[in-house]
Amino acid sequence: MVRGAKKAIAVGVAVAVACGLQKHLNFVPGPRHAAPVAAAAASMMMAPAAFADEIGDAAKKLGDASYSFAKEVDWNNGIFLQAPGKFQPLSALKAIDKMIEMGAAADPKLLKEAAEAHHKAIGSISGPNGVTSRADWDAVNAALGRVVASVPKAKVMAVYDSVKAITDPGVPAYMKSLVNGPDAEKAYQGFLEFKDVVEKNQVTTASAPAVVPSGDKIGVAAKALSDASYPFIKDIDWLSDIYLKPLPGKTAPETLKAIDKMIVMGAKMDGNLLKAAAEAHHKAIGSIDATGVTSAADYEAVNAAIGRLVASVPKTTVMDVYNSMAGVVDSTVTNNMFSKVNPLDAVAAAKGFYTFKDVVEASQR
What we know:
By secondary structure, this protein is mostly helical. The protein has helices spanning about 1-10, 15-25, 30-40, 50-70, 90-105, 110-125, 135-150, 155-165, 170-175, 180-200, 215-235, 250-265, 270-285, 295-310, 315-330, 330-340, 345-365.
């Protein structure tokens, strides 16, 4: 289920927020500065509209300070797929769980706007390093600032502390060595000023939990799917590092096109159901055993939550994701993964999934 938790971050877009913070934090000069930088965050959800302009204005100033640095970063580098130190999946999962909690606490409307800003930014990417336009760089930073601002400080700090715990202390210096040092330092100072604008508007209380549907057809179908596929789930090596490997024969720009389709799909999801899915994943992580497998009950709850999410998105958007992934995942990948489990369990799981898919599709808007 470690892999499933990673998937939830993509769904929740929280991962974009956390990664956005961490990329800046790669240039933190010392521990005494780390906490205020990570705390970054702030308040939009309960604030007057004027604060939105304040964060937007601050994002433009951050852009002035950081865009030169952004152009120097090789965004196509496979290093961003690697663990930031020793490979320790269960420890990394604790950090992912904190990101999920942060995403669940964020304002769904602001999450949607952040996803849309990322989609637009992907459309303006150019050059060998894969950098977006200056205007879209500013828009993404503003959107992330507003998302982080809608989350209480304690949850933001929990993400920072958990990521710090799995990050090798040599990582910041190494990442800084890949770009122009003065530009990195200028970007860092700009980020400190930006986080101050966000932090002063910080919310103090988290939003209410999601309303979870019950007694629906998707919930019933999720139980049938879970009964059919749980043996297969237990066959999988969730602690393998294979999930961090790049797709064979595909470049970063090619893979990014598929990721873009996922972002578009995420932006169209129902906000309450998105929150419910994040909360289901958080609970499932809490019941994971030493092999990375969650309980049967939590597995069922996650399947139901994901099914309801998919049903909240138009079929054409879902198919865009499927087709884009089919274009970047070679058959050797599926064959290799199939070879690692009991084939009878895999076939039973597939049959259960096809039935579940039909129920979701019938409920789709």
